[in-house]
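Late entry, evening session. Most of the bench is empty. Finally got around to the prediction I had been postponing all week. Sequence below, unchanged from the version circulated by S.P.
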Amino acid sequence: MSSFAIVLLSETMFGGAQKRFLNLHHFFRQKYGDKAWFIVTPRMKSEIEATYGIEFLKGVYAIGEINTKLSGDTNADSIKTLKPSSGLKKWIKSFWIFDLYFYFKSKNRTQKEFEIIDQFTVEKDIDRLLAVYTGVLPLYFYFNKQKRNKRIIFCNMDSWFSHFETNPIKRFLRQYTLFHRAHEEADHIDILSPFILEGLKAKNYLPLKQSYSITACSFIDYSTCVSGEKAELEFVFSGRLEEDKNPLLFIQAAIKLGEKYPQIKFHILGKGRLTEKINTLLSTYRLDNIIIHGYVKNPCIIFKNTSVFVSLQKENNYPSQSVLEAMACGNAVIASDVGDTRLFVSEQNGWLIQNNEEELIQAMEFCIQNPELVQSKAAFAYDYVRENFSVERASDYYYSLLYPKDGKI
């Protein structure tokens, strides 16, 4: 058996995808020893050590330099897009030369990353690479070789990427020019969900001849997930406090219900660009039963005592790590009925609603008035995620992509 590596070069906060593939690597490392590697950025490596400890650093290799310009609240998409500002900068960015400059700047950086990765793969006898999202960009240069001795699996897990709403061509040129080759020439494309697959087909970003499959399942580390006594019914929202997560919708519902039901607690976990706006809004009402926790290293500490997890993403709740963690800690789920959310939220473990304040308040108030039904759905959720969303199932799937039965590199 040759060696293989997962490549995930993220500069954003340590979110769901990072957790998922770190757990996958850790499982592979325990099973295959030094045949399994995880290539990351220095920022990711430091966050792995700070959050999970040195045990999870085995087989983790960092490339590049630490980006000191990024803060914990930064969104990578906004950095890559370089959104136009007012005045002279906006005028300059209106020219095609800016897109050209950005393209060559990105290409130069990724070429340097490729050279480091290529040398590392030679040293460790790595001939199979599982490239997660932007982790595929440095591997672009493998596609230029006449004879490629690496099997490359491209993991496309970006739900908004395949569903552009405004000016898709310009946005695509700025951010994803190098993804063209990955879609065309990767040995296989792993697509996170049917929602993303349909979007790729609709935009003609997926060649008909390409070999692809849908990811077997999402998964989490269940070792930290326990269900507490849950003496009182409590609601929880957890995620980046960004527009796409819809935290303000939860806050608005919590304020109205918090005034009506002062005995009910509403927890908010996470931080982001809406943090200040949320704090300002809540300071007006001064409700003691709405609790802002900020970033929580281990959210299961909160989840074990809550009863209902609220997930209100605008595009797709699947494959949210927070939803899985909450269910694994005995929470029923109220979720926006968008994208592939129905892959893990149903009437057996929760409620699916439209993304509006009226439906959210109705669903939350129904929970308050029917605690026994909440308990029943939460109990189902506890067992459901463990049976259907496991690292064992995911690892079998990814191993079959890395080492197909036909023996192809």
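Two things to note before I forget:
Residues 67-85, 162-174 have pLDDT under 50 and may be disordered.
The chain is about 45% helix and 15% strand.
Will write this up properly tomorrow.
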